[in-house]
Amino acid sequence: MLLLSILLCVALLYYLQDKLYKRYWDTGLYASLNLSDTRAVEGDSLTLTETVENHKLLPLPLVHVKFVTDRSLVFEDDDNAAITDSYYRNDIMSVLSWQKLTRTLTFQCTRRGYFPVHSLTITCGNLFFSADHLATYPCSKQLYVYPRFVDSSAFEPAFRKMFGSVLTRRCLNEDPFEFRSIREYQSYDDRKSVNWKASAKTGALKVTTHDYTATQQVRILLNLEEGSMLHYENLLEESIRLAATAAAAFLDRGIIVSLTTNGRDIITQEPLSVPEGSGAGHMRTLNETLARIDLGQDAAPIGPICESLIAQTRSQDYLILISTYQREDLQDLLRRLPGKADSFLWLIPLERSMEFKVAGDLARSALPWYVNK
């Protein structure tokens, strides 16, 4: 009789708590994900914070906090994770009455890209761990990982050639009365532009920059179409880094920059472009655009895009083509540029085993850029 009474009490307790958890488990329950920053550069480390709050008397003995993100975000602690096509995180915690719990996870951004986390899923069991209740919390977090800049010392010969061509084609000079900013001295700067007062204060050479009374545009054409059946993702990623490095250097010199690419947007699946602009805000737009290029999609054909760009290019503009694709159809298009060889530079990312195929009349404007595997 005593055993039967105990069993009846247990059954009644199970029934009551099951009803209670079914109805109230997610009342006053809040969950969120927060990033330490929404923008980073390849190789940077950031933190992601999980927060779960239980604003009620009913305790939650077993809570699973789940989210999915890209596998290229490498977390230091991956004990509660499964890594396949994506990174699947499942953290387990117990949240008592009126308790707030946070867990901070450190991760490294190992590659360029746009990485959204659209939702956070919470599952919770009852006191007997016999049922799973599920709720989804929208979080709409997006992380932009910008391409890193290429090594400036390795890029210097190409930069000197580009700056020499651009600055000699500029029709008007800097206006000494139009102050723009003070920045770090670079190897291509004239010593006459050094700000000695600012340099003495900081202990490092500083340069005063001025705006121009007239502007000239540098057009960057980033071609991500490949010229062979083999896929060289390392060359395409290096092409994107070169575009970011060139854009930053020209913007820092007060030169207007635009970007056109046949790489497709991971969100819209359409080829990307950024109209001409200048300043720090424009560089941020360029970086975000480059971050959103999805190399998993086939690039649009470069021919129509290149033809349209050539039609818009003025004789005083300067074109920087970044392309591993060296076929004759592209070279024929380049021969139609206003000003021809003096109006553009072609950077060609290659592996050491690859052939440089540019014809003689374009060769002086083409520069192979060798990439380690």
Describe the structure.
The chain has 373 residues and is of the alpha/beta class. Strand 16 (318-323), helix 7 and strand 17 form a beta-alpha-beta unit. The strands form 4 sheets. It has a 6-stranded mixed β-sheet. It folds into 3 domains: 27-146, Immunoglobulins (Immunoglobulin-like, Sandwich), CATH 2.60.40; 152-171 and 214-370, 3-Layer(aba) Sandwich (Rossmann fold); 176-213, no CATH class. Helix 4 packs antiparallel against helix 5 (280-291) and helix 6 runs parallel beside helix 7. The protein contains 8 helices and 18 strands.
Number of strands: 18
Q: Strand pairing plus helix content: what structural class?
A: alpha/beta
CATH class category of the largest domain? Alpha Beta
Number of domains: 3
By CATH, the architecture of the largest domain is named 3-Layer(aba) Sandwich
Count the helices. How many?
8
Biggest pleated sheet: 6 strands, mixed
Enumerate the strands of the largest sheet in spatial order, edge to edge or round the barrel: 2-10-9-4-7-6
Q: Estimate the helix proportion, in percent.
A: 25-40%
Q: On the 0-100 scale, what is the average pLDDT?
A: 83
Dominant shape: elongated
Strand/helix succession? HEEEEEEEEEEHEHEEHEEHHEHEHE
Low-confidence segments: none
Distance between the termini: 78 Å
Percent strand equals 35-45%
Short structural description:
The protein has 373 residues and is of the alpha/beta class. It is 27% helix and 38% strand. The chain has three domains: 27-146, Immunoglobulin-like; 152-171 and 214-370, Rossmann fold (3-Layer(aba) Sandwich), CATH 3.40.50; 176-213, no CATH class.
